[in-house]
Amino acid sequence: MGRGMCSASLVALGFALLVCSAMVSAETYVVGDSKGWGLSVSYDSWSNGKPFAAGDTIVFNFQAGVHNAVAVGASEYQSCKVRTAADSATMASGTAKFDLKKGVNYFICGVPGHCAAGMKLRVVAN
Question: What are the beta bridge partners of residue 29?
Fold first, then answer.
C-alpha cells in the first residue's frame, strides 16, 4: 500500500470516529438543577436558553411520595389533567428520567393541584 492510501485511510477513520462521538454525546439535564422538581422553581425560566436536542436525557429529582413526573401530551399539559396513571414506582423512588424526542416534550407533576401551581415543563428538542 502506498503512502497516500494509508493517510487517506487514517483521515476516513478519524472522520468516522468524529461522527460517532457526535452521535453519542447526548446531554443530561437535571430539572431545576440543585433545587430539583418541586413547587419552588420557575420551570420556564429554568429551561430558557438550554440547547435541548433529541436523545438528551431529562432527569426529575423530587421528594419521594410527594411528587412525580409524567410525560404528557399538549392537551394534558394545558389542562393539568393526566389521562394516564403516574408510575407509582417512580413516585416512590423520587427520580424519573426521560429521553427527549425531537420537537415539543411536555411534563407535569400528576399529583392533584401541583401542575396548576407551576409544576409543569415544556421542552423543545432540536
Answer: 58
The pTM is what? Answer: 0.77
pLDDT digits (tens, 9 = 90+) for 33-87: 999 999 989 998 999 999 999 999 999 999 988 999 999 999 999 999 887 666 6
By the 8 A CB rule, do 24 and 16 touch? no
Is the four-CA dihedral 15, 21, 22, 23 of positive or negative sign? positive
101 is a domain residue: yes
Domain count of the fold of the chain = 1
If 0-12 CB within 10 Å is exposed, 13-18 middle and 19+ buried, where does residue 85 land? Answer: exposed
Query: Which cell goes with 27?
Result: 446531554
Alpha helices in 32-110 (DSSP H): 43-47, 74-79, 88-93
